[in-house]
Amino acid sequence: MTEYQLIEGDETVYRDGTIKLHGPDGYEGMRKAGRLAAEILDELTGFVQPGVTTGEIDDKARTMMLDAGAVPATMGYRGYTHSCCTSINHVICHGIPSDKALKDGDIVNIDVTPLLDGWHGDTSRMFFAGEPSLKAQRLVDVTYECLMLGIEAAAKPGARLGDIGAAIEAHARQFRYGVVQEFCGHGLGRLFHDAPEVIHAARAGTGPELKPGMFFTIEPMINAGRPHAKILRDGWTAVTRDKSLSAQFEHSIAITDDGVEIFTESPKGLHKPPY
Ligand code: MF3
Ligand code: CO
Ligand code: CO
């Protein structure tokens, strides 16, 4: 049985398994946090190129958050000490920024989560350093399509959570890509990671009913090969077991009375590379 909880003011919210349903204040807060997150990725598009280190990207992301009066929600999160995640080529997610430079042909996901006035805006996009292989470009295109098809599935009246994963998996399958199962989207708002868990490969018609006021992310990770992940000894970096390329896009969205609202849409229309 899914329990929903109405969030009306600025009461403390707990990770108690309930799905939070937000009011106008929540939408306002998430619009600001989501917009900032998207603007940070917009700003990074000109910066990502061969020779730039992921640590430099992290510094830029942190500076932009602090300048806007936000803090990186990732910093200090379960011992993570950076302001974003930078996941290159066969890294699925949670790549740790370092002094490693991007090389020509790399594809990299940058995932940012500013915490602004108590609300979390969580989004990621793929970026190209130089010119990637056609195989990499096709994976990135299809992964973006998977995200948008998942969002469309959530926008249908009467939709259930499983409809999102069903739409994503059906699309990925046509290209024989693997949908990562070890990591999921998540409810968010005042909390960074909350119920429900949004799985990206699921059966249509299953899971909780989507109700207006729900805020959650959709963040499919799609592999050019098998779906399986393993975590490196640093405790964070998730890579494909078969070393195949992996791509990801993430939006923070709300269910509304007549569909969905995307909080993290690019104000500059920089939806997917090449930008
Ligand atoms: N932003 C990631 C997500 O989409 C979470 C990163 S947690 C970190 O949920 F600690 F790895 F940064
Ligand atoms: Co997320
Ligand atoms: Co994220």
TrEMBL record:
Binds 2 divalent metal cations per subunit. Has a high-affinity and a low affinity metal-binding site. The true nature of the physiological cofactor is under debate. The enzyme is active with cobalt, zinc, manganese or divalent iron ions. Most likely, methionine aminopeptidases function as mononuclear Fe(2+)-metalloproteases under physiological conditions, and the catalytically relevant metal-binding site has been assigned to the histidine-containing high-affinity site. The keyword Metal-binding applies. The gene is map1. SUPFAM superfamilies: Creatinase/aminopeptidase. GO terms for molecular function: initiator methionyl aminopeptidase activity; metal ion binding; metalloaminopeptidase activity. A divalent metal cation 2 binds at D122, H186, E219, E250. It comes from Qipengyuania flava. GO terms for biological process: proteolysis. Its EC number is 3.4.11.18. This is Methionine aminopeptidase. It catalyses: Release of N-terminal amino acids, preferentially methionine, from peptides and arylamides. Its cofactor is Co(2+); Zn(2+); Mn(2+); Fe(2+). Pfam families: Peptidase_M24 (PF00557).
